[in-house]
Amino acid sequence: MQKKWIRIFAVCQMCFLLLTTTACAAATVPQDKPDEEIPSIVPVRTGGMIYIPDRSVYFADVNTGYQWAFHAIDYLANTGVVTGTGNLIYSPAESLSRADFVLMLYRAYDMQKYSTDEKFSDVREYAYYAKAVDAARAIGIINGGNKNDFRPTERLTRQDAMVMLKRTLDRTGLAFKAGDLSKFTDAKRVAPYAVESVAALVDAGVISGTSKGKLNPREPVTRAEMAVMLYHALHLRAVEGTAAYLPQPSVRIVCVGSTIYADVRIENYESGQAYAGLYQLEQMVQKNDEYSVTLGAAQPIDDTIVWDGSELTVNGTVMPVAENHEAIAVDMYSKRKAGLCSTGKEYRAGAVSVIDGVVQTVYYKK
After folding, report:
1. Rounded to an integer, what distance in angstroms lies between the CA atom of residue 351 and that of residue 298?
2. DSSP, res 221
3. Is the per-residue pLDDT at 193 higher than 50?
């Protein structure tokens, strides 16, 4: 679940810093709720079906080959931190530019209200990343080079990404341990200016290195790697006084019709279960800004469905259809804008989500 309290604390810390260093736009920061307040639990949905994807539902090129990264990428897409590089394209294997990473930090940590009169010589005023770079410089996340340049289009190295991220996290109020890099075979390749940041993020679980026991600090960071790193950072919490990322295997991206929910906890989660595909939905509830679901049985997508333009037949039985029904293709999870196909032909394979005897959503394979 996204840690809004971290963002709120970060805003307070950043404003304090700016009052003593640079200009800070006036802002009213929402206050945390009292500890004694009982969180409200609101039922969201009961009955019907829910889909749990095994690949990105936002980007066609983040497929099953990116099992390790698609949840993080979709979380960032769902929360508006990333938008991809083109129509339904994320380019996960491409290197990330310095400017694009700052833009991600700008969106993730709500830096929109910060600015400075100091400008980089190579950042154009109307560049899409200009405001993000300006804000990051204002609060000390980035600094100018010898020529007061930022090199916005230059590929970002893994160690520089960690330095920028650690500086950002230092403004959230989280505390970090010193950390130790001795287990990595290429620890000596980490530049002196980056050692503290890299070691702290390793200790907190934000980064873990490669499968070969390396950090690859001077290599370009890919867009997929950066998404995972930022997802972990956004989910840090204080454990015994220091920041730690705690994996949550019961948390998934879930889809109910065309509505996509990020970081939903499966209440009846069982370790070892794959949890992918269509399921009966017993209940979905919201607790403050967090969602959880109780799943029923897995549902095969193998019904014979015919829609002739006015009548829906499922396995030979006519069923009523909701006026605002949806048709969802699960192959590349997408909503058919025109609703059901009135071709008179059978869907190759499908399943229907029914509430109170009425079909709400038709899930189908193309």
Report:
1. 11
2. P
3. yes
